[in-house]
Design a protein that fits this description.
Elements (H helix, E strand, L loop, with lengths): L2 H12 L3 E6 L12 H4 L5 E8 L16 H6 L1 H20 L4 E2 L14 H7 L4 E2 L5 E2 L7 E8 L22 H5 L17 H15 L8 H5 L4 H4 L11
Antiparallel strand pairs: 1-2, 2-6, 3-6, 4-5
Helix pairs in contact: 1-4
Length: 241
């Protein structure tokens, strides 16, 4: 079985609802020194695979801006599934003689990072949302992904399927709800999110309430393409891991 067919079979067998392939020759909006060609010069493709989050609904306490611990505990299983899928895909690529590696994405620090949001966009899984995420037509912003860079040449995903999909065009709820005002609704979603301002606020909350504090995710909790879109309207596929 050729690699592409074997990979498609694995994705189907695992029931992975979100999967896309990006050409590493793209990524024009990558941060300096964090383009795939800088990280792994031999890599040709970025594989992006994801699963939706599960309930309970993410809510944020009004005064402290801390999100409910039960939400994060419930989704530990989803994050574990992403790690397991990553290992299975890496093993498959290795069996065909190809290499693969992954890099961490968004983190609560000020350093640059490989952009998972950009990888999702390049792989045709979503469009830019206002608050530093990608929004998928089926799962909204209520999902998480893993990313692998590989030297295998696999057919890329057709991004034209997302043409006309503009979930943030008439919405600024996240900007209105953002405590540090890190979202500028007057700008296009690609450039309206101030990551540094967001992280400074999150770090201040963690310092005040403890390093394990889950903060603040208010933008995520008010997004119309979040819980209510995915779980609150009976999407059974989003309720399973």
């Amino acid at each position: 079985m050729e690699l592409t067919a074997a990979l498609e079979s694995l994705i189907a067998q695992e029931g992975v609802p979100l999967f896309g392939v990006a050409d590493n020759a793209g990524f024009q909006h990558a941060l300096p020194d964090w383009h795939p060609r800088h990280l792994v010069p031999m890599a040709k493709r970025a594989l992006v695979f994801g699963r939706p989050f599960v309930g309970p609904k993410l809510v944020v306490e009004d005064k402290m801006n801390l999100s409910n611990e039960s939400y994060w505990k419930a989704n530990e299983a989803v994050l574990g599934e992403i790690s397991r899928l990553r290992s299975r895909i890496m093993d498959l690529l290795d069996s065909f003689g190809f290499a693969a590696c992954n890099f961490g994405g968004f983190g609560s620090d000020f350093g640059p990072a490989f952009s998972y949001r950009l990888a999702q966009y390049e792989a045709g899984l979503g469009v830019y949302g206002r608050f530093g995420v990608c929004i998928n037509p089926a799962f909204g912003c209520y999902y998480t992904v893993g990313v692998l860079l590989t030297d295998a040449v696999i057919p890329v995903t057709d991004r034209t399927q997302l043409e006309g999909f503009q979930p943030c065009s008439r919405c600024s709820l996240c900007a209105d709800a953002c405590p540090p005002k890190a979202i500028d609704p007057s700008k296009e979603p690609e450039i309206g999110y101030d990551r540094d301002k967001c992280i400074r606020y999150i770090r201040a909350l963690k310092k005040k309430h403890g390093i394990e504090a889950k903060a603040c995710s208010r933008c995520f909790s008010v997004c119309p393409w979040g819980y209510d879109k995915v779980l609150g309207k009976g999407n059974d596929s989003a309720a399973q891991v």
